[in-house]
Design brief:
alpha/beta, TIM Barrel, 8-stranded parallel β-barrel, 8 helices, 9 strands, 18% strand, globular, binds SN-glycerol-3-phosphate, binds magnesium ion
Length: 246
Amino acid sequence: MNGDWPYPRHIAHRGAGKLAPENTLAAFRHGASFGYRMFEFDVKLSGDGKPVLMHDATLDRTTSGHGRVDALTLGEIAALDAGSWHSPAFAGEPVPTLAAIARYTQANGYLVNIEIKPVPGDEYRTGAAVALDALSLWKGAAVPPLLSSFSEVALEAARLAASGLPRALLLDKLPADWLDRLRRLDCVALDSNHRELDADVIAAAHAAGFKVLCYTVNDPSRAQDLLSWGLDGLITDAVDQIAPQP
Ligand code: G3P
Ligand code: MG
């Protein structure tokens, strides 16, 4: 917790970074075992429009399935193995739904950053569907999920579907008009590649009323520098090397 910002400064990337299969419940449990209390994860829609955790547009890298995520129904995705690719200890780990993660995180008092990551061409539908689902799954929660996306179309759809859920714009490179973009989308925060940040950029965002998050910081000394400049949220794979503040 940081002043008027209800989220912790340390956020585990895709659950537990690289120590467990990304975007699975096993990863969240692993991240939590290192003291992490907030989790970033990637969400896209199955072919029948259900939000599931998956980074890539295709199933091949992180599951036993093949092809585009939206070519399969939720039932078909639920039958896949999302753990064996990582290591035998995680064989049979399922692909979680957003609903399963909402249950797990709220039962344990954890907070979330939902990255809306549409398959190409499905930006608007995904932004709206994920935001609506998040609104109902976190109804009554003391702290809402923080939504983020590289897709401005998805963020605009999320804004229209669930205006009360806070949004952050993900930017891999900061364009000259980054502040205008945040304002246009009525975002609460910039969430950029950490290489784009220095003390001046963070101060400029704060002066304009925005919080600043960044990804993916795996070097503890870089993390220290960013936090000393007033960074509000640091997304890391290195959950075993970067200790979260209590
Ligand atoms: O949410 C920040 C970060 O996760 C963006 O990059 O590719 O790991 O989803 P990526
Ligand atoms: Mg992500």
